[in-house]
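User: Okay, second chain of the day. Same drill as before: sequence in, structure tokens out.
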Amino acid sequence: MYTSINYRYQRSASRLTIGAHLFGILALVLLLVWLLHYRGGLDYDSGNFQLVFNVHPFLMFFGFIFLAGEAMMAYKTVMSEHKVQKYVHGFLHLVALCCGIWGICAVFRYHDMAKLDDMVSLHSWIGLTTIILYGLQWLFGFATFLFPRASEHMRAQIVPWHMSLGRVLLYMSICAALTGLMEKSTSLREREQISSERELHLINFTALSILLFGIFVDLSVALARYVYV
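Assistant: Same drill. Structure tokens below.
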């Protein structure tokens, strides 16, 4: 049976959404300055394992965290047809998942080239767990809301859990990013490979920007302007 979807004005989240984009772009710019200026660039197919590693933080933030945040905001803060919102939401999450998997492959490749052990840090445990849960969340969401789709009653029951887990996964991915940046910063200092104090400050500001991006994404989703009734 066809069910009409109506919009109800709840509360404007436009300023929060703008803030999320500003902090997301700032984090991306700072990350690229660090990787390109201080760390020599990024190249997955390079024979230099440091350049291979640099692909990991780029893909995990821009490809995974940033696009996941965009997918959440596209569904909750942009007024459009419900079907369009769902497809854009699902597509952006799928791209984010693919980039996250590629980013994981990059760090495993780096470990192989540098003769390092895998999965020994808290960062790696949180990161891999997040990717696995994210993939399961996408598959379950696709089957429930897109194809073959669950019943309307079941979808209504699942939506709060789907949204809550999505927000949890956003914070888990940010936690993984922050612990990863802290781990890399500590490693560079121990090996005396930091070029200057400015690089340490740059890493810290990048981490803060990523955290603020996640907070503003979560607030913009929680206070979304358009909701379905």
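DSSP finds six helices and two strands in the chain.

User: Thanks, on to the next one.
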